[in-house]
Amino acid sequence: MNSEQWTKRTKHVGKRVSVLGALALASLIMACRPSAPPQPQAAQPSAEAKLAARIYNSGFDLAHDSYNGISAASDGKIYYVLSSQNIDVGAQVYSFDPATEKVTHLADLTEVCGEKGLKAIPQNKSHVRFWEANGKLYFASHIGYYTIVNGAETRGVPPAGYKAYPGGHFLSYDLTTGKFENLVVAPHGEGIIAMTMDPDRRRLYGLTWPTGYFIRYDLRTKQLKDLGLQTELAESVRGAKYRTLCRSLVVDPRDGAVYFSTAEGDIRRYDYAADTISTVPGDNLRKDYFGQYDPTSSGTMGYNWRQVVWYSPENAIYGVHGNSGYLFRFDPTAAHVDVLDRITSLPSQRTGMFDEFSYGYLGFILGPDGNTLYYLTGGPIFAGGKRVAGKSVAQKGESKGAENLHLITYYIPTHKYIDHGPIFLPDGQVPQEVNSIAVGKDSSVYALAAVTQNGRNRTDLMQIPGPIASK
């Protein structure tokens, strides 16, 4: 081997050693780094993929926009409340049996609250889910007769000959006997806009509307306690003291703590042992990804979370920020918020725009498998290749324009996101004003949707037949 060949070989070997050394060093560095969380897996149906849904006629033509107000129970039935705005007719309670497809009218909400014939503003709504414990469903009633002031909904001023709204009620329904029980009325003549239950400690919790009192009711002692205002004067005013109220409360079953949010983005915690409420230190919902908000504005939920659920495998809270559609995880022990993925529809993600409902969508729930999140959210409509935009500003929680409705699933263990596509009724209608969701034992998804049939508008029960793949 001559000197020139030796020099070339030496350089080649040196390069190999350098490369191998760099690879070894990189491997060592990677081994020492903490493992990264699983990355989200996105699955997209074909462009032609659509979901077929059907509407059941409950026989209540006055049915108006209904928020939450629907749940699946252990008996396999779906229980729901159809709201009203009529001064003489309250909300109506129903059950639906998927096995027989039978709709059963259970009660008039004003009547079960013991106010039939009172000639007062009725119990027009229930804006909360049903919570099940010991063979009973627990829920709450809400006002639905409003006086509009400067474009805003305020507590209805009773017409001549009528009394003021008596206040929302905590109620129960016995799944075996079919009997309702009127438990207690909320203070200050306010409705109950948000509710949760701690079944282990036999407690009901709520936030009242429009001023925002936090209340708790003990089922064992039958005592109601008012823990006071939680966020300025909430939705009872406009201006500097206005704050949009949180619509979703969640219980940590380990210690009985109850969490809710504020328009400023603070996370508030009810301490079961101390019977007090304070702001969680260390982290909050004021995230750039969620957007920038003026908490005194009535057209958004601000930094409030829209809907949250407890996820037992991680002892954590999963939720969605309504306006931005971002999924987040809140660890109560570490007092830490992680922003995970944007779980709006794929068309919404591509446009980069918020959905048309000014508060974001409430149809967010953990499914029967305990691992899959189901989310009903908006999807833009296109005409001539361009997104059809609604009005730019809203004065309250409302749809700013027409859009499609998409079903999203998110399998938490693998972070798998699926947009199952837009939902259509047999006549081609797009379900509107959908802010509710339930997943039945039959794996079908249920919600309350606004539709037009026979020339008349109403809200009624919608079913998206299952099973729906999520893994």
End-to-end span in angstroms?
A: 62 Å
Task: Determine the number of helices (DSSP H or I, runs of at least 4 residues).
Answer: 3
Major beta sheet, specifics?
A: 6 strands, mixed
**Proportion of strand residues:** 35-45%
Classify the helix fraction into a percent range.
under 10%
Residue ranges: pLDDT <50 for 5 or more in a row? Answer: 1-40, 42-48
Mean pLDDT metric: 90
Structural class by SSE content: mainly beta
Count of individual beta strands: 34
Explain the overall architecture:
The protein has 471 residues and is mostly beta strands. The longest helix is centred in the first third of the chain and has 30 residues. The strands form nine sheets. Strands 1, 2, 26, 27, 30 and 31 form a six-stranded mixed beta sheet that branches. Strands 3-34-33-32 form a four-stranded antiparallel beta sheet, with no helix packed on it. A four-stranded antiparallel beta sheet has the order 4-5-6-7. Helices cover 8% and strands 38% of the residues. The N terminus is likely disordered. The chain contains three helices and 34 strands.
Please render the helix and strand layout as text.
Blueprint: H1 3-32, E1 41-43, E2 51-52, E3 54-56, E4 70-72, E5 78-82, E6 92-97, E7 102-108, H2 109-112, E8 131-133, E9 136-140, E10 146-149, E11 152-155, E12 169-174, E13 180-185, E14 191-198, E15 203-209, E16 213-218, E17 223-229, E18 250-252, E19 257-261, E20 267-271, E21 276-279, E22 307-311, E23 316-321, E24 326-331, E25 336-342, H3 346-351, E26 364-366, E27 372-379, E28 382-383, E29 386-387, E30 404-411, E31 416-424, E32 438-439, E33 445-453, E34 456-464
Parallel strand pairs: 1-31, 2-31
Antiparallel strand pairs: 3-34, 4-5, 5-6, 6-7, 8-9, 9-12, 10-11, 12-13, 14-15, 15-16, 16-17, 18-19, 19-20, 20-21, 22-23, 23-24, 24-25, 26-27, 27-30, 28-29, 30-31, 32-33, 33-34
